[in-house]
Specification:
- The chain is α+β, with helices and mostly antiparallel strands and 97 residues long.
- The chain has a single domain (2-88), classed as YaeB-like fold, CATH 3.30.2310.
- It has helices spanning 6-15, 20-32, 38-44, 86-89; strands at residues 2-4, 49-50, 55-60, 65-72, 77-85.
- β3 and β4 (65-72) form a beta hairpin.
- α1 packs antiparallel against α2 (20-32).
- The longest helix has 13 residues, at 20-32.
- The radius of gyration is 12 Å and the shape is globular.
- The mean pLDDT is 96.
- It is an enzyme of class 3 (hydrolase).
């Protein structure tokens, strides 16, 4: 998958170093993946929440951080729409970010 934008992840793990290792692992796994449907994502990340319109919420460091991605399966592209603490995630609408 092509991931847009890694810079968002780097900025986040610079602020929250505890998340760095898991975000790097998520990035490497997503980069190597060829997801064609939400079922493919769910097979790899059973705790991911599948939302409407290609949105997926990934739990990072257990459930301490949340990553919202918009996946365009037909283009093999993952757009990072939000990364934040669980408390920050609770304040957003994952369908609209």
């Amino acid at each position: 998958m092509r991931i847009i934008a890694r810079k968002t992840l780097v900025e986040f793990w610079t602020k929250y170093p505890r998340a760095e290792e898991q975000l790097k692992a998520w990035y490497a796994e997503a980069d190597a993946a060829s997801w064609t449907s939400p079922a493919d994502v769910k097979a790899k990340y059973g705790n991911a929440s599948i939302l409407k319109d290609g949105r997926v919420v990934f739990n990072i460091c257990g459930n301490e951080y949340r990553l919202v991605a918009w996946i365009k399966y037909e283009y093999y592209t993952v757009y990072i729409r939000f990364i934040g603490t669980h408390a920050e995630y609770d304040k957003i609408d994952a369908q609209k970010v």
